[in-house]
Amino acid sequence: MAIGLSTMLEKTETLLGSDHASVVSMNLFVALLCACIVLGHLLEETRWMNESITALIIGSCTGIVILLISGGKSSRILVFSEDLFFIYLLPPIIFNAGFQVKKKQFFRNFMTIMLFGAIGTLISFVIISLGAKHFFEKMNIGDLTISDYLAIGAIFSATDSVCTLQVLNQDDTPLLYSLVFGEGVVNDATSVVLFNAIQRFDLTNINSTIALEFAGNFFYLFILSTALGVAAGLLSAFVIKKLYIGRHSTDREVALMMLLAYLSYMLAELFHLSSILTVFFCGIVMSHYTWHNVTDKSKVTTKHTFAALSFLAEIFIFLYVGMDALDIEKWDVVRNSPGQSIGVSAILLGLILLGRAAFVFPLSFLSNLTKSSPDEKIDWKKQVTIWWAGLMRGAVSMALAYNQFTTSGHTKVLGNAIMITSTITVVLFSTVVFGLLTKPLVKHLQPSSKRSSTTALQITPGSSFHDPLLNGGSSYEPLLSTQGQSEYTIDQPISLRMFLNTPSRAIHHYWRKFDNAVMRRIFGGRGVSPIVPGSPVETSVRQWSEEAEIKEQNGEP
Amino acid sequence: MAIGLSTMLEKTETLLGSDHASVVSMNLFVALLCACIVLGHLLEETRWMNESITALIIGSCTGIVILLISGGKSSRILVFSEDLFFIYLLPPIIFNAGFQVKKKQFFRNFMTIMLFGAIGTLISFVIISLGAKHFFEKMNIGDLTISDYLAIGAIFSATDSVCTLQVLNQDDTPLLYSLVFGEGVVNDATSVVLFNAIQRFDLTNINSTIALEFAGNFFYLFILSTALGVAAGLLSAFVIKKLYIGRHSTDREVALMMLLAYLSYMLAELFHLSSILTVFFCGIVMSHYTWHNVTDKSKVTTKHTFAALSFLAEIFIFLYVGMDALDIEKWDVVRNSPGQSIGVSAILLGLILLGRAAFVFPLSFLSNLTKSSPDEKIDWKKQVTIWWAGLMRGAVSMALAYNQFTTSGHTKVLGNAIMITSTITVVLFSTVVFGLLTKPLVKHLQPSSKRSSTTALQITPGSSFHDPLLNGGSSYEPLLSTQGQSEYTIDQPISLRMFLNTPSRAIHHYWRKFDNAVMRRIFGGRGVSPIVPGSPVETSVRQWSEEAEIKEQNGEP
């Protein structure tokens, strides 16, 4: 342990070795991040663009400029670092997703989300693996082993939840958002778990024992990861509730929440669990319990700080992927066989389309069978949107591909080089082309004026004035406005039949009962929220928030 | 440039090389940070402790535990990395200091602060250098060159502004806080500039030309650094004011402010300026202009996020210094001559006490000559407090000492080893002993009931109820409450005589005129603050803030 720490810090020392060049690079990178934010803001009005694509394009352009300046000699402009991604950039994004997700929506659709995220990913994984094996064996692209094909399946089953966040709007299409995004997180986790399992197990001889072990491993990871996240979230609620009684310090609270969220992620890494799942559930629990125990100022601060950090990490990733795509060394090997590389990329894109279609439509059908109300069913328009919105492949795929195909200088091997360049091509193509088409498609299929009727916050049609105040723009209001609602409990017995008919509802109902009875006493939660509804502070916060919204709506500076 | 970027990222890759050991270390470190926050909170009531000392002690204890676990073999527990400190940990602290400083106080005492920070540090530098040369030459501790002695002067002239922030209270003793802290920042900058100059110039033959060049270099750095910081701050105000008209996005604003602040720091590093000064002035300008152009939510968020990040970085540093102090290798060399090491440390501590006394009392006397009102004069109690509060030496000293005495494996040389261990001893001793005594001393000399009458916010005695609401606890209120004051202008001509008599006042007056006339039109500033005093939003924010304070005061959860 001690040695690890020292190695790490010695490396940090060399890393940051105050050479002028790295200072130049950092300046360049920070300046580019600023440019992305400003450009993203300016382009927000257009229906095609989003911040990811802007960052990707700016990154690629910078890559080209640097390549030209260095006279085409600089083969490595910016190397994609798997660990930088998994240790620093991904945690804030996934945590924030959990923190901001509409929990009611999420838990209401829990079963569907799990169905899509776990079973769906497995279906997609099988199809892509088999397809890749079928096609690539005929193409003579170097010797790929069975575990390589399985890895390809796992790599290209990982949807880009980051990009999804940018194309779907939580407030306009809450059902779709929670389904696609929730699925994305579970899917990311499933892919990573699958990938790790592939690297760990000897899969040359698959038999039923190994398959069972594999499945057992998967559920073990899933349950433990979730439990760890929930435990970390509850710990933060407990500590903040018990220790800070009466003398809240905003800065301490904010710092402690950040640290505990990060600790949950790192602990999951330590125990080789799925850190993505852990930090996601930690975010959910923190927004459900911890957030209601902190001062009003901490509420506003955490909400926006986590969002801003996540936003920065997202742009960073896309800028990074854009710049990395220009790395000459990778393209050198495949230069002699451009046809092959294009062919592989095209096949992979086709398999992604097919693999996703193969689970979205059947599983939606299955999910619809369990729903009684037509409002909760996933109609074909929604199914197409779900299918399309999950087609993008992003940084998780890149990171996994690097892990599998660049181990110990194997990049020079043709098969590995082709797989890396194809991954980059697929990521760029799917993000830019599929990404560009998603916003118009969603607008076409799901006109935003027609709000989904399964919204947690029932809004009477025509209340166009209060509507944006409650649901739009502000990311502060939605959580606040669900305040009183957990007081409301249905005192019906939970029957097995009810469970079978509407499983997600029953779970939600059970959760609410448990939540009311036990959890709130210990961890605070909504019930003992420091903002008592109707109190002067609550009125004031609401009033303030609403007035700020009105100002924003009216375009005042 | 391209190569620099790639080198940096390749190193990042090796750095983070997903070895299990570094994950363990990160977990340990994050957990310790959490422990420091919780313990710091629990110990807040005691008059002796502060978070720095807690972190220092926890760090040392952990160091001992790791040393015992590894059986005394692990010589390097955690290596203090100069660059980690200067590139990641220092910027948020200094930026936040500029962002939260009471600008009116700061500019009112600008001349005194500059006098203490620049001239004072030079005096201290000369005394410590001469003293070190005088004593150490007789002590036979290896061959130290003239530039080593000068470096020692610069290293031990750097007061620890981080620790100062923790022992003095901006609200209880605003004059002292702004003097000591303002001096601390200028002093840090002066020390770093001096230190760089010592390393750059050939100082074996000092003559008047070199001395002049040295002085010229100093002022050049000082002015350019300040200008860069101001420019970055104004740029952020301009961009946010012009581009985000009417459709503010809190997350974008927060992200952009963070990025631009960091960019100013890195640009200063790039141009070899004093990045500490740059980011400090960037913070001041951002709180004066940018902060008034953002949404209310961004106001609360930035205020607390910057404070929380700075708070985390502070604890990190002290934990780091505490753990680093246990590095066996450094102590190995000096083990044979413990007397020498203790002697050197004692001499250095004496020189620090003397060097600081040699400028605080004479310069206070000079400063008092220019003040007419007895309220603005620095009485002897205040002088003693200023002298004492600046005695602590911290991470800046450590970083500079490492830079000077550990270059290319020279740690094994006796002289270098002794200087490193003595620096650690001085830092630990001054932080713990002087730090522990500061709070009681301040309480004894400056009873908090007797508020300084030069406070920007004049509070009538006896208004004990409103007092804490306006000044105490909340770090949100102070900036808000100075709202209307920039409307008020004195239409008297600025005479040279006025300038000579009360220089700081004249500067403040001139600044206010300029600020009103030009700056506010372009950059927003207070005058065109989006919160119009008396408007519903302003009333609501104030009301909300006050109610939250009352709750806090009353000990409600």
From TrEMBL, chains A, B:
Major localization listed first in the record, in broad terms: membrane
Entry membrane topology: Multi-pass membrane protein
Presence of keyword Cytoplasm: no
Molecular function as annotated in GO: potassium:proton antiporter activity; sodium:proton antiporter activity
Substrates-to-products reaction catalysed: K(+)(in) + H(+)(out) = K(+)(out) + H(+)(in); Na(+)(in) + H(+)(out) = Na(+)(out) + H(+)(in)
Membrane spanning residue stretches: 20-40, 52-71, 77-98, 110-129, 218-240, 274-292, 304-322, 342-366, 386-405, 417-437
Segments of skewed composition (Basic and acidic residues): 544-557
GO biological process, one term: regulation of intracellular pH
Listed GO CC annotations: plasma membrane
Domain (Cation/H+ exchanger transmembrane): residue spans on this chain: 32-443
Keyword annotations: Ion transport, Membrane, Potassium, Potassium transport, Sodium, Sodium transport, Transmembrane, Transmembrane helix, Transport
Stretches for region Disordered: 534-557
Annotated compartments: Membrane
Origin superkingdom: Eukaryota
Record-given protein name: Cation/H+ exchanger transmembrane domain-containing protein
Organism field: Capsella rubella
